[in-house]
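Re: your question about DUF7745 domain-containing protein

S., sorry for the slow reply, the queue was backed up all week. Below is exactly what I fed in.
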Amino acid sequence: MFQYFQLAPTLEEYERILGLSLTEKQPYLYQGNYSSWENVVTMLKVSESELAKKRLRRNDVEGIPRAYLEKRMEYLSKVGDWETFANVLGLSLFGIVPLPRLDDYVDHAAIDAFYACWEKNKNPVVVVLANTYYNKHGDKSARRDVKYGLGVTMPPSVIETGLKNQLDQIGLPFSQILSIAEKDHVPGLCSDKVTQLKETLAEIEEEKIDLKRRLAKAHEEIEREKKTSKLRQKKAKWEEESKAKMK
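Result:
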């Protein structure tokens, strides 16, 4: 029934692809209701009336046209509001790369996931994986936030190629995706680099031992000098007392 389950994408693979560890952040999980449009208004710094005019519903899915977000970014760049610009840009990319649904449209599900990551620092790995299953399954009647298609599997190379193509289309600087076929691959490090780091750590440990030895020796010398100084003071005092008695 699920003969090729080992070819299915896994959370571990998506953690590696996205560079987001589930041990560091709590995952975003759909809670039964999307975030309110008031939250989106705050995030994008627009009026409720303006956003209400721009919102669209396609195929029974509500969302924001990407063209509107692009115009919003153009305006924000002119006025120099770079913080809000980054929010709008992040939302636009969220609807293109990790959670694509319609080509020119960012739907409410993607908006809700982005808001949770932006406001509550959630990890989107789980929902991105679920969205991959949904899109590959091709069940048009299933809603992404309710039912995920788990009947079709695909090789990791297919997933990797699909994500890479989406990244290349918009020319992101981090469009080089880590390979998910190499199980023993360590991101950003080769075996030579690991060996070099181990050697450096060994040298640091030797230096620490040498420094401890020097510190102990210096401490002994200080104690010895203190004792010598006390003896000299006692001797000088004894000599003074002896001279006083002779007088």
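The CA atoms of residues 233 and 239 lie 10 Å apart. Residues 1-7, 139-155, 172-189 have pLDDT under 50 and may be disordered.

Happy to talk it through on Thursday.
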